[in-house]
Amino acid sequence: MSNAGFGKKSWLxxxxxxxxxxxxxxxxxxxxxxxGIRVLDNLxxxxxxxxxxxxxxxxxxxxxxxGPPEGVELVVGDVVDPxxxxxxxxxxxxxxxxxxNTGVEPSVRDPGMDMRSNVVGTFNTLEAAxxxxxERFIFASxxxxxxxxxxxxxxxxxxxxVSPYGAGKLAGEAYCSAYYRTFGLKTVALRFGNVYGxxxxxxxxxxxxxxxxxxxxGPLEIYGDGEQTRDFIxxxxxxxxxxxxxxxxxxxxxxxxxxxxxxxxxxxARIITRLVREKTGNEVxxxxxxxxxxxxxxxxSDISKARxxxxxxxxxxxxxGIEETLGWFLNEGYFV
Length: 336
Hints:
Layout (H helix, E strand, L loop, with lengths): L9 E5 L4 H13 L4 E6 L6 H5 L5 E2 L12 E5 L5 H7 L5 E4 L6 H6 L1 H21 L4 E7 L21 H20 L2 E7 L1 E3 L9 H10 L4 E4 L5 E2 L1 E3 H13 L5 E5 L5 E2 H16 L5 E4 L14 H7 L7 H14 L5
Parallel strand pairs: 1-2, 1-5, 2-4, 3-4, 5-6, 6-7, 7-12, 8-11, 9-14
Antiparallel strand pairs: 10-13
Helix pairs in contact: 1-8, 3-5, 5-6, 7-9, 7-11, 9-11
């Protein structure tokens, strides 16, 4: 993607020290080095070290913020704190809201925690954006709001969440719609597929989890029979979609951001075991355990709306993406 449509912009990235956040910041600074970026993160997953690997930053207190960010600023705080959100939004043009409890399993263990993080946190960030006159708000959603539905899922599929995680993301989408239609905040909700890629050392989703298990000697643990399907999207394709949302004149929309390709968990396991064997000489086993509560059986996305309105087109195959991701883990010293 070219730099067309980008001047000097100021951003707030909530959850900016995590996998998606650091990947986005690195990408944005390559495209537009003059961007001002403020990160709001409670450092429960991502760390200062993770952020320092992609940029130089200055840590600031919420009470010291009076205007737009200069360079990259880190605010250590939580989106469940409305005061921290309000301070972090000062002088910002675009909010990329990534901060969340991520994943079905934690939401099933502790639905209250999930609600506070994903519903209250999203509301607080939207309200802070409104009060500070932010222009755009890009919300990281998921296919989980749709729940069990015949794939491919699309934006008009009736939502019936299976998990608390899906319910929380659906609530976030609803608040984004309301803030656009009532207050004029240009919100966009992006229903990410299963994101994987380089810099995912802290992630517990399937690709990163399998690679870490394989490089530590295995075996790979698969819930159920492994024939459940997901739409796996490589991080670079996801970043392309986010950047398109920053320049396209869209508001109040929901987009499926995935690949429109259905891949079983067994297929992912086979690709990883083959690549690990080729690159390290190690054989990795696979074991099957009970199906997880809240898991959807089949899931992949119709991305025709994103293609039409954003010009979005994924470029990475699952094989190429996993090979690149495995290479990063090996370079980071995960192989033992």
